[in-house]
């Protein structure tokens, strides 16, 4: 059983503006809590509709320790279910995508329709009612070709996120994309350290020399990407407007959406800044549209350029182990070897992810030390890390309050929550600044 009072004490004991107490990074009990309170109560970006390109298909993945399957029914409707057989709990579909009219459990061959209905169970008594043993549904949302699921009985509100993301993402035509490549990387670090690293570029100048060639680590004014009044920013804004695209930024309780320019002369997030794919994802011929960065807590960020979308996901698999998944999407009509080359498409992010793995594993070793003490974040260079950690603390305290019926926050935090409104982070002390006030983060 989770010791919720201990976890509440750890979270409320965190000094505002500082990293977390050690146990929140390396305690098995905290991992179990995170799977329940964070990954079990948040919207998770599990993939894309192009991974189920036709009706009668599915996409299976694992959220924390919970297998989930998204199906596309005969009429094209997307549904999601716990990927756990209602007989004895075996995982029905192996992780990955497939084309199948029905889902058959490999253990005892119970068969489910794509709407979750149990249609066949061998040798069961007459009293057995198949209608009571369908797959358990999971909340699912499709936003311009991106598939989100939530395991919670009552998920966080989705309407404002859709309203802000969809107009910016739709021009990238993910519904007309295909999965060109994907890979995974195991990082020996707690998932929160992986995401802290992914939410800042304080380390990028030294840690990612290849990324610095294309990604705007720090513009001439020292601001985030490019500041209003900067001639380069104004030229980018005019170019984006002429292309019929929106820029944002939109900052929500658990998301950030913003289109920004790449470094001068760079068209895509590749090792040389050249386009990764000749067949553009956006309509028209304008390729110099920067990158649309869309990121959600607790686990993901994406970059959508004119030619491709790159997806990053960090999923905890153990206390000090995280599975990082990277996917590259290109236009469905693009031909490998003609319009794009896998090595060129993937090289920059493969190099960056390996560098980040090494940084995270080194970070975890230091955090595990008896000499570790939480340290202060840079409000300019680590503002999105502050937002992430403040969000984590607030989400954790919300869940503990829901479980115990007692809001154990200090009085000042409860008053801040009451005055902040339902859509604002409650744990406000030391919260990160808006995107326009911070420096660039590479994720």
UniProtKB/TrEMBL annotation:
The UniProt entry, under InterPro entries, shows: ARHD_Rieske_2Fe_2S, Rieske_2Fe-2S, Rieske_2Fe-2S_sf, Ring_hydroxy_dOase_asu_C_dom, Rng_hydr_dOase-A
Keyword Manganese (UniProt): no
Give GO terms: molecular function aspect only: dioxygenase activity
| Cofactor(s) for this UniProt protein | Fe cation
Q: Which CDD domains match?
A: RHO_alpha_C_GbcA-like, Rieske_RO_Alpha_N
Entry keyword set: 2Fe-2S, Dioxygenase, Iron, Iron-sulfur, Metal-binding, NAD, Oxidoreductase
- EC main group: oxidoreductase
Query: Which intervals hold domain Rieske?
Result: 43-149
Task: Indicate yes or no for the key word Iron.
Answer: yes
Q: What is its EC number?
A: 1.14.13.-
Family annotation (SUPFAM superfamilies): Bet v1-like, ISP domain
The record's PANTHER family line, in alphabetical order, gives: CHOLINE MONOOXYGENASE, CHLOROPLASTIC
What protein is this chain from?
Aromatic ring-hydroxylating dioxygenase subunit alpha
- Give the organism the record lists: Ancylobacter oerskovii
